[in-house]
Amino acid sequence: MTSPRALRVGVLLGGSLVEERVFRDGPITIGQSLGCSLSVPAAGVPRTHVLVTRDEGRLVLHVPAGATGTLAHGDTLTELAGTIVLGHGARGKLVLGEATLLFQEIAAPPIAPRPVLPASIRGTLGDRIDRRLAAIVGASVIAHLAIAGYAWWQDLETGSMLETPVAMQYRQEVIEVTLPDDPPATTQDPAPGASVPATPLQTPRPIVKPTRVNVKTGAPEPAMSEDDAQRFASILTGSEVGQTGATEMGRRQPGADLDKQLDAVGDREVVIGNQQKGFRTKDREGIGDGNGPDLDNPTEVSQQKPKDGNEPDGRIQIKPLPPEGPGTTLTVQMVLDKIKGQYMFGLQRCYKTGLVQDSKLSGKISMSFTVTENGKLDDTSARGVSSEVDSCIQNLMSGWRFAIPRDKDGDPTEQPFKLSLALQPS
To answer: What is the pLDDT of residue 278?
Structure first.
């Protein structure tokens, strides 16, 4: 009986042995893929290639394309190419790119049995159990079973909480109500010697409230009766003297002739004139109270007399006018406050641009501009330090906005400004 054959293979990378294996059966594959029998991640090695197969117990070597090597069998050396059957004891060398394979056909070594410890060392199952741990686990199991049994024994059967409770017994309750009899209606006086009750008898309140139904008709209820209207008309047109004197409505009675009433108004005597019910005989009679200023010339301005201590203080106070500013409502302080608060960040950014070129850059920038009627700037100019900083600030000024300047009449106008900006490195 022929003993089974095997192939011993060693893999060298860079002149160092990285893997050595003995293949007893099955085909042997080589390549860069992890699924190959020999996974060799080196340049020149194919992705996957069947290197050795078996044919009736013999090993057949399949040389991959581009590989070189030699095969020694006894004293004979053969170049590796194509498909070669490996004889007993054949050995060889195969070069695949950066990897080198050394192989040898050998007799398959016997399969080593699984190592088993002697029975004296293995011991029994009882020897492997910790007695203290087993006692703790057993006591815990007994305690849990006792608690579960007690809970099951004391548990009472109850219905589900989702079910509607149904009464097992029904009992009809009857409420008896006794109403007192109505007292007899009598209009006669009580007989002599009969007692009169301290409080009259009262009819008990009915158990059920009567339902009140409001019925609305189409016609509205009259707000005032005819008699009330006649009475109010008599009050308004009466001839009686009230708290404020006799009224003119007294001559206009309801039902009177309209023509006669109009004639009475037309024939009434009207007096126009002085306090004696006559015409003015003097130049300025009846005009003013005599205490005011006398104005003979229409263009003359009246002068207020000094106030004495007896006159009451009024609510109107005369204050001097504020000093005149630049001629408009937009002052220099308003412009400076807005530049310091809203536009200072842009000025600092322009100054930092100049400091990049010259770390000691300093000086004064003369700024001039005109605030137009819509609050924008015109005729902007900024110069004095450097061309980069001056042009940057002048570009910023084109986007500045201020309050619309107005003249004394409140009309929009233009206002020029000239400022000086001092730059100094910190």
So the answer is: 55
